[in-house]
Amino acid sequence: MRNCGNPRVIRQERGAWEGLVHRYGHHIYALCVRVCEAEDLEATYLTMFTVLREEHFVVLRAFDGRATLTTYLTLVLGHCLAGQRLGMRNTGLPPSRLRRLPAA
After folding, report:
1. How many of the other CB atoms lie within 10 Å of CB of 29?
2. Inside any domain, residue 1
3. How many H helices and E strands in the chain?
4. Positive or negative torsion for Cα 21, 14, 79, 2
5. Which of 99, 46, 48 has its CA nearest to residue 74?
6. Number of CB atoms found within 10 A of residue 84's CB
7. Cβ contact 84:91 at 8 Å
């Protein structure tokens, strides 16, 4: 799943979103566990998937393949989680910032 995140998800092909959730859900959950209190864990976990779906999958479309998708999601969603933990109102990255985000 390199280059353009997951093209099947972006094209909204049947079963593609579910496949992405199945493949990366445990990783996203582990990120949430590291920074969330137990009472916020489920809501935060679901919010990370909302972030991935925002603006017709802008986060996945910004992925350019210079790292693995797992590494990219760790960086982008980790940034969102850090913002959430710091109490920032908007925890998502603006599309302009995503396009300039360097790969690991």
Report:
1. 15
2. no
3. 5, 0
4. positive
5. 48
6. 20
7. yes
Please say whether the beta carbons of 50 and 4 come within 8 A. Answer: no
Domain count, the chain: 1
Residue 65 lies in a domain: yes
Between CA 21 and CA 52 the distance in angstroms is 10
The closest alpha carbon to 100, from 46, 61, 69, 62, belongs to: 62
What backbone torsions phi and psi does residue 68 show, to the nearest 5 degrees?
A: -75, 160
pLDDT tens, position by position, 61-95: 999 899 999 999 999 999 888 877 666 544 444 44
Would you say the pTM of this structure is higher than 0.85?
A: no
Q: What is the CATH number of the domain that holds 55?
A: 1.10.1740
